[in-house]
Design a protein that fits this description.
Layout lengths: L16 H5 L5 E5 L4 H17 L7 E6 L5 H15 L7 H8 L2 E5 L5 H18 L5 E5 L6 H10 L10 E5 L7 H14 L5 E3 L7 H11 L13 E9 L8 H26 L8 H14 L6 H5 L1 E4 L4 E3 L2 E3 L17 E6 L11 E6 L6 E8 L9 H4 L7 E7 L3 E9 L7 E9 L13 H14 L6
Helix pairs in contact: 2-3, 6-7, 9-10
């Protein structure tokens, strides 16, 4: 019998791992299933999970929304979404066929109790037919104004508890409009669901590079010592979108850029950059350190609002070669609206680590380029040995850039001498792309190939304007 290679031989450390980590079958009910979040994010993400096999057999999706779709029409919409937005293309016919068999649709208004009675019947039927065992997840992918009706009706129909299995509710951002409304929403949720059933989520935290921030900081001994006010000049967090409202005018009028992006996505990125090391990499310790950062943020009051913030709206113009309308001409937007679509904030954190270091936060729609990144600019050396006249160019500061999207990765900009007899200094980028970390089924690049990539980027002497 020929001896198998190391690659072909089974890994004894993985024996039984898939069975142990496989989640229980369940039904995910998506309220607002015909909306933008479901179309762009949820359905493609669920398909990718089915493709990568973490989803258990029997997993089912029930779309709950007002539009008069049949099961088949909703499946067609789901397939269009997956074809357009899935990171895994083209669609695998066998995986799609299996995944689509568990997709169903229920038409109802969110405030109509009879819709929840029909939902109860459908869930019981799926438990029987697909073996979901009473396990339910309710995902609120709706405007925040709809949350109270949905939560109250789930409780009135008895759908907040399951006779067998478990029940969870996922509430998307924004969680309330301000502190008072957030507390009121929390009170309404607590009347119907136990705290351990409730997941208040920010889907940005699921992005690969966002999750990599903590690993980058705390798994490497060379960065954390300089991650403080002594070495960092300032931090820029940018979430730029080249798209507009895309039919979400009514929602955006409720939210605006600050509530839609800053108070959730942008502040989450800020806390991950600025937090202290947690005592353990578990949910509660990480959350506690992030909350400390939020407590330490200097509030913008009085003249600080004028000096350290900009709010604006996009007008008519051109983006990516296409003509676009102004914000107040969008469907569902008042012609007198003062809702901001662009915001810039300069904030400070009153902590021992970050005192005096400005954090610049910016986000907006219909901008020239789609990019989300965190740029940490370091201070210049205390003594500039290479003067401008000697170096034939300004010596630029070092910048560490964490790219969240679309080109996930990490880039470090530093000065290097241009080959030759003269002392010429140029900024070069050493780049890491998340795509280099291949899956377990693909060959991983060796250290040599990673070094080659880094060296090629250095030799290109290409300075990227941030």
């Amino acid at each position: 019998m020929p001896q198998r290679s190391v690659v072909e031989a089974p890994n004894p450390l993985r024996e039984g791992l898939r069975i142990k980590h496989s989640p229980e079958p369940c039904v995910m009910v998506i309220f607002g299933a015909t909306g933008d979040l479901t179309h762009r994010k949820l359905l493609p993400a669920l398909y990718n999970l089915a493709l990568e096999t973490p989803l258990p057999a029997g997993f089912s999706v029930v779309g709950f929304a007002r539009r008069p779709y049949t099961d088949e029409q909703f499946r067609e919409q789901a397939l269009e979404s997956i074809n357009q937005y899935s990171r895994q293309k083209p669609v695998n016919p066998q995986v799609w066929e299996s995944f689509a068999s568990g997709i169903h649709y229920l038409q109802s208004d969110f405030h109509n109790p009879s819709g929840y009675e029909k939902l109860t019947e459908m869930l019981n039927k799926l438990d029987h037919e697909r073996g979901t065992g009473g396990n339910r997840i309710y995902y609120l992918s709706t405007p925040p104004s709809q949350y109270p009706d949905i939560i109250q009706n789930l409780g009135a129909a008895g759908l907040n508890r399951s006779r067998k299995g478990w029940t969870r509710i996922i509430i998307e951002k924004p969680f309330g409009r301000d502190l008072a409304s957030a507390r009121e929403l929390n009170r309404q949720v607590a009347k119907v669901f136990r705290e351990e059933q409730v997941y208040r989520i920010d889907h940005y935290l699921g992005k690969e590079t966002v999750q990599n921030i903590l690993v980058f900081r705390f798994a490497n001994g060379i960065f954390e010592p300089v991650w403080n006010r002594r070495y960092v000049d300032h931090v820029q967090i940018t979430v730029a979108e080249n798209v507009g409202l895309e039919g979400r005018g009514a929602y955006y009028e409720e939210a605006g850029a600050i509530r839609d992006m800053v108070q959730n996505h942008v502040l989450q990125l800020l806390t991950l950059v600025a937090m202290e090391p947690p005592i353990a990499f578990d949910a509660n310790p990480v959350r506690d350190e992030k909350v400390k950062v939020l407590h330490a943020l200097q509030p913008l009051t009085g003249q600080d609002v004028v000096a350290n913030s900009i709010r604006a709206q996009y007008g008519p113009g051109w983006v990516g070669g296409h003509q676009v309308t102004g914000y107040t001409d969008e469907p569902g937007v008042s012609s007198l609206s003062v809702t901001e679509t662009y915001v810039v904030l300069k904030v400070f954190i009153d902590s021992w680590r970050w005192a005096g270091v400005p954090f610049y936060l910016r986000t907006g729609k219909h901008l020239p380029k789609r990019v989300t990144e965190i740029a940490i600019q370091f201070k210049q050396p205390p003594l500039m040995l290479f003067k401008r006249s000697e170096a034939h160019g300004q010596v630029e500061p070092n910048v560490l850039t964490l790219r969240i999207q679309p080109d996930e990765g990490i880039s470090l900009k530093f000065g290097a001498k241009v080959p030759g007899s003269e002392m010429q200094i140029r900024s070069v980028n050493m780049d890491f792309f998340t795509g280099l970390l291949s899956s377990a089924n693909s060959p991983r690049p060796t250290n040599a190939s990673c070094s080659t990539v880094c060296w090629a980027n250095q030799r290109s002497l290409h300075a990227v304007t941030r």
